[in-house]
User: Fold these one by one.
Assistant:
Number 1:
Amino acid sequence: MKTTLKLFLLALLTSCVSVKKHNAKHEILIAPKKLKQDVDFSYKKLQKLHPNLYWYISKDSLDYKFDSLKNSIRQPLKPNEFYRKLAPVIAQIKEGHLRLVPLEKRLTRKEIKNLEKQKGLLSRYNFVLDGNRIFVKDNAEKIPNMNVGTEILKIKDIPVKDLLESYRPFVNSDGENQTFQKYILARRWPSYFTAEHGILDSVKIEAQYRNEIKTFYLKREKITKTEKKKVENANKKITKSEKGKTKDYNVITKSFNRDLQFPVKDSTVAYMKIKTFSGTYSRKFYRESFETLKKSPAKYLILDIRDNLGGSLAEINNLYSYLVSEKFQFINDIEITSPSAMYQANYFSEFSWFTKPFAVAGYPFYLMGTALSIKKESDRFYLRNNGIFGLKKPKENTYKGKIYVLINGSSFSAASILPSKLKHEKRAFLVGEETGGANDGTVAGRYSTKKLPNSKLYLPIGLMLIQPSIEFTHTKKGVIPDHEIIPTLQEVLAKKDIQLDWVMEKIKEDSSQ
């Protein structure tokens, strides 16, 4: 017993020392020479691993930006000060998946346990951006002074305009797209603020609601045992009672990731909302949903992928097979820079400590499978489109009615590839806003995360050029809707869904005719 206690105390002390040592590195100044080495290291790794680095920016232009950055570094900088210089250059590559990651403060076990017992600070809200202004979009817990529609003017006495202008260079989209930034910055600015100012117990806010300006403090609140038990019971009740969706409930958002509804009495219209293509339990959902659709009188299907940031390529490939009646090739062969690139993918980091031994055992098979899948054509390397991405037959329960797809600037990655393919095949009518992801594909899939040798910043690099099997537009833009509808700020805050309303009215007109 004494030995066990000593070992526990030793592990605890070692952990605390390790955390302290790690966090101390954040304050160490790095010499200009070493920072320039990190710039060169970043560019060389991008050139070696990124399969379409000069898609949206010329080599001469990118060379100039990296050279200019090196010339601007004349004084020692802390790691995250260096991040603020390098991250905007990485963003100029204009690949929405590609971004530099700042150093984060490491927490002790005690600090982690304390945070687990507390509610969030800024993370408890959803925000919407209008230029350089931030508004509260959702306040599910009805916290005072943060009503829906409240405009945040200052945080820690810093004007919101200044915060957003300092964070905006860190975000980018695919190509020349301009719709994605406002959505992704609305999601990320709280994390940028936390990275800059640390995890705070409270923060001073100046806000305006209905022409009244208030100054107050947002505070972290402790989660009481009663609250915790109530939430756990509610989640259990929901997940047990919903047939076909049991494994698809998100306890954080308190909603289902995928959902199928029939919004009109005669069930002639079906509405399918997909919040993310997570891949988890998706096959069962689509199998059951399209069985239901086949038995229903639904002549119209509304597929809502707004605010869907993408995810599993296998899931959208499977979903597409329920929407078409003929054999199809969903994506082209995936391009990579070289055979060696795939051997640098983040293989082991994708497994938990519990499953690591299985990952080790399976690694030789991963290497063998990768080697066998690589082919060379005209000095370019590809991964063969076999298995789930080969020529596919449609499902037996394929939906044959008319399809409307709702998209917006926060439809990204896989949620852009799917509507791109549907539009090209003239299988669906797209309504809403230009997608945040590119029409002609993206660089993502598997990643190789590189640690910069001196600043210790992380740079995850996408290894796979994934493109839908279509005739490319070469516009460097997102998927353009067949009918564009962009809601105003007032409509968003008032929860008016004018895009869905337009589709429902259009269906009503078609049905009456």
Number 2:
Amino acid sequence: MSFVGRTRELDAGRRELETRGLLVVSGGPDSDRSAFLGAVAREVADEAGLAVYRLQVADAGERSGEAGRTPDEVAGTVVEACRGGFVVHPCVVVVDGVPAGAADGSLLAELIGAFAESESFLLVGTTDAREDTAALPSDRCADGWALLDRAAVHCDRGDPRAAGPLLRRAVEAHQVAGDRRGEAWAVFLYGRMCRLRGRAEDARRLLHTARETFRAVGETPGEAWAVGELARLATGSGTPDPDALAEARRLHERAGDRRGAAWAHLWWTVARADEPGFPWQEEFTNVQGRFREVSDRLGTAWTLHHHALTLARADGTDGVDGTGGTGGTGGTEGTGERRREADRLFEGALALFEEADCPHGRAWTMLEYALRSPAHRFLNGEWAAEIRHVFHGIGDEAGEAWVDLAEAGPSPGGEPPYELACRYPTALLDTLGWTEAGDPLIPRAARYTQPEPRPGFPRPGDRDRPDDSRAHVRLTLLDDAPVPDVPARIALEVVPGPGHPWSTVPLPPLTARATSLGHAEIDPPHGVPADGAEFRFTPHRPGAHRLRFTVEDPATGTVLQQVEADIDVVPSDPGPHRPTPPAPRPSARRA
């Protein structure tokens, strides 16, 4: 039965909306109901990175020039307006003023039915508190496998932001059904999403958990995928692990998973493509044939991308052997032929990325094509702005930073710009090179993740300030592997450096305040002495939870430092259960 929300508490409403994708608020004064719906919508939209759209049923007939129509006659106009745009692209939709007094709840049922297969969130405000819930359709989020499929598509497109809400709902659906296999796949996709976001430790922990569960339930294809993703974690830090990728390929082949074997073969080839003497031309051709056998356009596109990149970099201008292990001819004629072949492959990759609707691959291919083909770049004076726009569309700020670097060229001191240094491991950035023409040779692994800035990473203005003269906030998780609905302890400590004035005297009476930015309780929520503070963190769903800690001087009310930390919560026992909702707590509202 679909939930019909009667609560007026913000956190509970937000949890229900994110879990089921639907929240119905009944009765109450119009202004109060509308304000509550707006607050919940903003909370969910901010967390998921989505737009909010509002529709007032009472205004629908007036806007269409058909005032005076009955509520049921207006229903078609409202539902079609939603189907016309809001259902197609993920967003948060608020429909207020819905009359629910009709015997069959026609408009309410029509709205919920219209969003049944959508990834959008639907909030409905009804004008009658006595609607007949029997008329509502069954919970649209019960199919955990369908949710996983949609989340995987978002990850494939390079847009992990939209995958998070789907995965949270999928975990609950599989837990309620007692499906360990489905829950293992959900945990695996959580790990993959964390890898895409550059959260290596969270990804490693989740992928290890998924791999062990796959083994326990005899899911060999899942185990192979988990082994491959774990190997790609090493590649993302600039240290490829070809042996682990080869093992993933063997596992896929043993399980009869031809598509998985093709992907493992591709990443194994990419990990070794820059080795002197490696026959990358032959291997890329073999991988391309594998993907075509299973009709995987996305895999074919990435194969063409990396094949073109290897050809373009093997022209003798960047210190790579001109033959590239292919036995090709050297000299100017050979270089020109390789560049023409690389252009052809880049164009083929672009076409396939567009067909597969993968903006992540399209943006990286556009960037590399522009850098490796001067003629292509100069024909389009807005090349950088166009590529930056595609990266921006999927929220990939790291990709935009690489475009900025390509436009600006190498820095006089040779150090990477702040926007890259605060996101990528030093080992990866150390492999960044430059051509004689001043174009960057971007590490291959840079396109495997979309890392966010690391908390506390010093900004350029702080670099002249010795590290030992600063005070740091140290957070320690005292309980391993947090699970839903079980408190975990977090210790906070202010640690002054040796050169800081506080290093030789007792700390002043500072206070620390903790705030949960997601579905979790944290106690105490208010300021406590920062010297050895301890908080109890109680999450209410699996996945990543972000907490904000603020250290203040209570005497002056000055905020001295504010840090945010992500804590990964693993699913609890996979037996059938529903997460226990926390008690309403008005103080949990965010400003």
Number 3:
Amino acid sequence: MLELLRIRDLALIEDAELEFASGMNALTGETGAGKSFIVRAIDFLTGEPMGADLVRPGKDKAVVEAVFVAEGENGAPEDLIIRRELAAETGRSRVYVNDRLASLETLRELKPGLVLHTSQHGQQKLLQPAFQQRILDGFLAAPELPAERDAALAGVRAVQAARQELAERMETLSRQREFLEFQREEIGRVNPLPGEEDELLVRKEALKGRERLEEARARALEALLGEVPLAARLGELARALAQLAPFDDSFDADREAAEDFRHQLSALDARIRRLRLDEGEDDIEAIEARLFELAKLKRKLNKGLDEIVDLGRQVEENLSFLDSCALDAKRLEREEAQAAQALGAVLERLNAARKDAADRLCARLGQELAGLGFSEYARVEFAFEPAPVYSGPEGELCELRGRLFWVPNPGQPPRPLDKIASGGELSRFLLALAGLQAESARPTLIFDEVDAGIGGHTLTRVGERLQALAARQQMILITHWPQLARLADRHFQVRKDVVDGMTYTGCARLDQAAIAAELARMSGVTA
């Protein structure tokens, strides 16, 4: 039950607070005063979109909040507080449930148990065969069947898509087979390895370094061991310096330096002879030949070596796929047959359930309509047409889709509701359907001028039905008929005023005196 509704800074409403009764709550007022907009605020609160242009000019955001009383897990009543804010700058909204941030999906999940809104717009929806089918599915004894149908159909379509993808790939690769085999032969003949070219270049550079080393080593040994070895000449120099020392003792130091250097040359000779690079088994001519072979393959395929290695792997995969795809095609064919069989089983159950639901719904609708002023001979029925949902090798699978037919008067053949129903008849159809739809969850019923096109004795019958529904569950009724407004347990008047050049929409609960005045206004009675 909707206990309290507050609207702030939404369009013409600056601040309105409504405390509803548990039975029938009537909203009345002049045309254009903003009655339907209050109901629109409830829709916004329960998940419907609303544009940023509806935030009151000059305000940062609009806020709609409400207190619902719901039955808790232990059966005791519990408050459910919902607030939704609409930002003027961005048009984005924020949702709070019991003061905790929530999502729009949460609101949509809560809505069926909170409100059921029926409006004049619903008359146009009622004329749509797809909407009529959704109504019928709402009365299935096994309400999970449409979801099972969707899941089974999605499974079939997934396999069909896989088969289509496989067939397209087979066709494409079959056209390319000759070229793929040419690429495989060219790549296989050279058989390049990942990173092989870089490795060969490193080895080639190492061989060139070995050549430079041998050349430098030979020159060093030649300098040390030429026709007259450098060590022998240093020995002669040392002996000559020794002969000079008696004449000048400073030559002793020079002689010692020459002797030291002669000994160093001996060690240097040994070090140079020991200096060698690991010769290994590399052959620079073989490396050059391999690099040339790789370069030729790169030119032929117009790709880098790493790309060619990847291409070789892809070519092998594609050719292997072509060799094995027949098995995959057979496997997918079996899977599609199994998925189609599962879909057929679900459709069989769904079609039977829809026929059963149609019988029960039409019987109930006939009773409801008889209580709303229709002829006791009026008959409602669903006509079913098979609609293909799958076509495959095993044949076609169809689901039965129902369209609402009725006979308002005896002696007439059944005709589609959208072909013969008047506005007043559609209003009563909506009222009857809403009463049946709300039997289990018992949400707050919102009727927005559902009494359009009705008058006279029929209006009295509608009033009686509205009273009976309001005794069962809470109702918010927007009406222009005083005959209906007078039945309300609580009466609110919506009015539009201009103050200091600004327009405001307000909503006030009426006392008995004000109710009498409002009913007189609605009746066109002047004081």
Number 4:
Amino acid sequence: MNTPRNPPLLPEAQLGPAEKLLDLVLSASAHLWHNRPGLNVRNVWQPAPRGRNAAVPANAARVPPGLFVPAAVNLYRRLLEIYQLNQDLMAHFASYALTQTEWRDLKVACAALMLVQSRSGQPVREDDGSVAFLDDDFRSIGEAMLLHYEKKSTRMLTPKGVLRVAELLETPEIAALNRRAGFSDPGSKKPPLGRWKRAATKWLALRERNPAMLEGLVKAGFKETIKKIARKAGYKPESQAFFEVLGWKQKQAASGHRKVGLTGLKLEKRERFDGLSEAEICEAIETQKLTYKEVVGRLPKDVGLTPAIMVTLLPSLSDRDLRLMTPTLEELGLMAEPEIRARWEKAVAESTDQRALNVAKNVRNKELRDKLEEAADNAARKAVSEATSEADVRVMFLIDKSGSMEGAIEQSKEALTRILAGFPMDKLHIATFDTVGTVLRPKAPSRTAVQHMLKDIKASGGTMHAAAVRALHQSGVAFPPTARLIVIVVGDEAGEAGDQFARAFRECGYAVSAMAMLVSVSHARGSTVKSGANQLKVPFSEVSVDSFNDPYQVPRVLKALMDAPVSAGTVAQSGWVERVMRTPLLQLTPSGVVSKKSATA
């Protein structure tokens, strides 16, 4: 291994807001809430071992289901740093996170920050005290994030998300960050909620005035969540119908001020299906438009979840529900039913995350496991396709297999199996290197083919990144003049000087548009790739291979890395950050309806 001679380009303290934002997207899982018990291992959440008497590692502490505070504080602090450096960038990113991504917990964190930050349309005065104009009201973006609605879309906050915004802001550690940022009275004991109560009240009122919308949320299983939002916001319904739909019995307050819902409430009660035949249960599902969650707990033991009942419930299940239910469907023998299998196959094809890989571990049938792995491949393909839709992007993967990678090479292989199948075969070029480069070609665009291609790679030898570049050139790899080349290196960067690496691209006639580093370190970290990007004056980004353990992270990282990069003069910028800044700002109209405001660079 050669000793690196080039220092890092910028220390953490000197990173600008755009670099910090890109680093956040590439390195933060933004997964804050967990619905099962876990362990806190050096401020990282891990699933708790099963069994009441299961041993807990010495460096771990048990944590209950719910918000994992260390991850929440880390994410919120980083968003706050970006806001303090560039408030316009944060405002556009909040709008981008809601309308352009599936990152549920990130939407919550961004909405929370925008609701409490200090720019709220204050008057800016002339020297004589008269009002010159009103400052931007970025709190209205937070309100708009709660109120944004698109029918049958996942790109809005669910009732659970609306509630979680308040829960996040009420967390003592988050409240302390907001006080230090000057978003509230530092002496106040109450956590600052900004405009959350106002926005939540509007959210509830819109649904009360649209009974079909409220009833749909109740059927989807959000009844208790809506009650919690109403309590926390201090909501006063317009009529008792609100309580009736929620099945929420009321009583007079001690002060005697309650006026609505005290008498004549007709609470809807869900009865079990005991005594009904399978056909009668199916008829009830169709006529009452019941969902899976409403039905499964009411089924008689002697009937259970039959194929006919499951087929009747299929329209109420999302693609994500079906993928997660695969082990249950298999255990009940329902995957043999043609209608259920066809709907499940469609759900696999529409996957937008790689959670199916975790589900596959609980499935016995190999064909079903292979299909779930295919769902993970589909998620990667969609991410790449969406990010490269506006340009002809070619990708060069260079994989370090030198001696310094011993112990880290297996982790690199697992990360690569999750991402390489997402790339079109004719636009992907792969080579390994120590002091010699070797060109690799998967037999097929699938996880299995990538695993087969990588299985015999062992760590040994010295390190020369440029050897991989020259090996690809010697094998005949060339790119059209209009193509944009993204180089992604997997390893520890401990190799030759950056100028030597950059020279290899120039000598081979490769015009690089951007470089990225998938960091996998077992010994020491170098700076070859970062320095090479600096020499070539192209955007550079990095992400740890540990991030790919999160099934939601792979599509996010691929989108950020693959967004067509651009260069402004001699200063390299990320095309992804430019896309964020082009995102229209969410805003409210006087009627409370969410609209979009044209973005300005």
